[in-house]
Specification:
Belongs to the NAD(P)-dependent epimerase/dehydratase family. It contains 10 helices and 13 strands. The protein is of the alpha/beta class. 44% of the residues are buried.
């Protein structure tokens, strides 16, 4: 199968590219390297360094003729979306529409869209949230990812492609940017590496569902199987909640050090609780394999050997 991955030089996308290639697929990557990295390239993939806002996009994709498009290119910083909502609309909505129209013109058979299971639901009851829960995002980022989902479904009706929307919980793992606003595990790892005290926004009692990038990739691979091609939305999470304070204890143990955190004011648009129900995806044979303790431990082990 010929697969086009947008954002394929980034954190999640680069892992996905590696696995698609390992499974014998032909992979083309579209990435403008605004947040991606050249060192994450897989030499067996073809890379086109271009923005989704490029007017040549439709011609480029029509020439490629991919069977499937996996759309991971995005602006994923909630705080930045609050400060620059118009930029977030351009990146997460307008560019998605451009891609969908181009994919439709190229007669792509299927779209996989990487969405968010955190920001899209908004403030929820303190329980695992299913896909049926009403989406009430409280940040521009969440609103725009929800809008992009609607465009994925709209253009499926217009162009006839199949689609899968995957709503990720809080993803962590190798290659995550430690210098941004999101990705608390990579950020704290970098702070500990520099001998700094971890900075926590709020009281540290915010609960999140942390999932390793390998489990995210496994979920994506599932939807290459013909039996799992139905048009639907799936949460991709562990269904296990961990507070930031609990996460710090896990990370301190893995790092074999104890550093008191610095607590500062909570960020606008931040959620107090977000845990995803994964029963729907489990029915297709997927389940998370890497526990948070083991995943964090592996990250610190990898850091020590590099």
């Amino acid at each position: 199968m010929k697969i086009l991955v947008t954002g394929g030089a980034g954190f999640i996308g680069s892992h996905l590219v590696d696995q698609y290639i390992d499974h014998g697929h032909e992979v083309i990557v579209l990435d403008d390297l605004s947040t991606g990295h050249k060192e994450y390239r897989n030499h067996k993939a073809e890379y086109v360094i271009v923005s989704l806002s490029d007017p040549r996009l439709e011609d480029i994709i029509c020439e490629m003729k991919p069977d499937l498009v996996n759309h991971h290119a995005a602006q994923a910083n909630v705080r930045l979306s609050v400060n620059q909502p118009c930029m977030d609309i351009e990146t997460n909505v307008t560019n998605t529409v451009r891609l969908l129209r181009a994919a439709g013109s190229a007669k792509v058979k299927k779209i996989i869209f990487a969405s968010t299971g955190g920001a899209i639901y908004g403030n929820t009851p303190r329980k695992a949230i299913s896909e049926a829960y009403s989406c009430k995002p409280i940040s521009p980022y969440g609103i725009n990812k929800f809008a992009a989902e609607q465009y994925v479904r709209l253009y499926a009706d217009l162009y006839g492609y199949q689609w899968t929307i995957l709503r990720y919980s809080n993803v962590y793992g190798p290659r995550q940017n430690p210098h941004g606003e999101s990705g608390i595990i990579s950020i704290v790892m970098e702070q500990l590496r520099r001998g700094e005290r971890p900075v926590i926004f709020g009281d540290g009692e915010q609960v999140r569902d942390y999932i390793h990038v390998d489990d995210i990739v496994a979920a994506n691979l599932l939807f290459l199987q013909p039996d799992n091609m139905a048009n639907d939305i799936f949460n991709v999470g562990t269904q296990c909640g961990t507070s930031l304070n609990e996460l710090l204890k896990i990370m301190m143990k893995a790092a074999r050090r104890s550093v008191p955190p610095v607590y500062v004011s909570a960020k606008e648009g931040d959620l107090s609780w977000n845990v995803l129900c994964n029963k729907k995806l489990k029915k297709l044979g997927w389940s998370p394999k890497i526990t948070l303790d083991r995943g964090v431990e592996k990250l610190f082990q990898n850091e020590q050997t590099t």
